[in-house]
Design brief:
two-stranded antiparallel sheet, mainly alpha
Length: about 500
Amino acid sequence: MKYKFLLIMIFLSSCSKWLDVKPQDGIIRDNYWQNKEQLKAAVIGCYASLLDNALVQNLFVWGELRADMVSSTLYTTVDEISIMQANILASNSYTGWAAVYRTINYCNTVIDFASQVTESDKTLTQEQLDAYLAEAHGLRALMYYYLLRSFGEVPLQLKASSGDDQLQQLKKSTQQEVYDQIMKDLVFAEQHAQETYGNVLEDKGRLTKFSIYAIEADAFLWMEKYDDCIAACDKIILSSRFGLMDGNVQSQWFNTVYFTGNSNESIFEFQFDKQKLNPFYLMFGAANNRFIGSPRVMEEVYGIDITDATKKDIRGDGGSIRATDQMIWKFAGATSGTQLDARTAADSYAHWFVYRFADILLLKAEALAWTNRGAEALELVGRIRSRAHALVFTERTPDPTSAIDVSNYILEERSREFAFEGKRWYDVLRHAKRDNYAHLDILLDMVAFNAPGNMQQSIINKYKDVRSHYFPINQYELQADKQLVQNPYYQ
């Protein structure tokens, strides 16, 4: 048997970092899947695939460009501007999902073949095998969760294909079917995932029980299963393994949480480093960067105290953005505080932040708001704001008994806390679609504010059709898989 797969072949020089391999295409033969070392290498290969430039760029574009936090520059591509202006065609390169399905296929390969190792390596216990499988199931669930929120209906490829980029000829599954598969994977992962790998790098860069709980909490909230969301969040909170990093000295906070990464606040991060740089320098940091923060980020999201410059939300200037030129500082900055120095191209190894402890607190707060526990929700928001030294300018006093008012306040706070982390569009869409799109005005108001004046009404009219909230299937995928049918809005 020959089987194409992401073969872990080239080891990097650093022996202190767990992700010390990078992937290449290769062929898995009968003599693979022989021992637990090969199994671990295959699992680590799944994580290595997350560092694909195309994948992480997609996650940023999908989660930010249709929202209101990012502005274009002279160097923004035509495809990127088209997304910002709601002119999304099936030919747009960002509607391609190959990078995500590639990771899914690597996970499928582990799931399909890992059990063979027990036949030849008797030192591999069932518990160890299940723990590796938990990582593959968890990563597959996370990738499908991104696809669910971005495309709605997608094919469920659950068997390893013979090529890294080959998608089986499959019909689309409904949103409910995709969600059900996500939860099935997460249930297995929760049962068998490890709580710790014994070191910080792996605990933040590989899936643990706690990162599985985080994905579950997010997915439960997306599907309006509020009690389940709260329960998943509490598993993380009550573990006492995570906390908010002290924000009294902005420079230290920024360095710990964002420049260095893997802080006590971190739950799961994509582990870029000096040997595997991210694509963020050309996206955010170079003189010809393609994205900057929207003017509204400082003016309205964080606010400016014109009477006392020492008072500022640490997440604003020098945190998420550099106010002087709107550079997206979270990924482009090297220092914070009184002196703001940008990263060089060689220093572009900021992690991609999937879940932080602050996310869990605000996910729980939102679920609490919709279970008649608004006062508790506001306490959690206050905890986030206190750490960040948020300005009075952005403080709200919603009625704790009004779920929508409390929820809207949380949405505002999430824009401050997770600026540019690929969450804004999904957050707004989640709020808009709640109760069968009872709150569509939240999304339409954002679109109206952000749209160019001459295009405002046409963009609003597009987004009134809720089918437009999901991307079209790329034309290449339609040609490659004859069973695929274009998403309804784009037919």
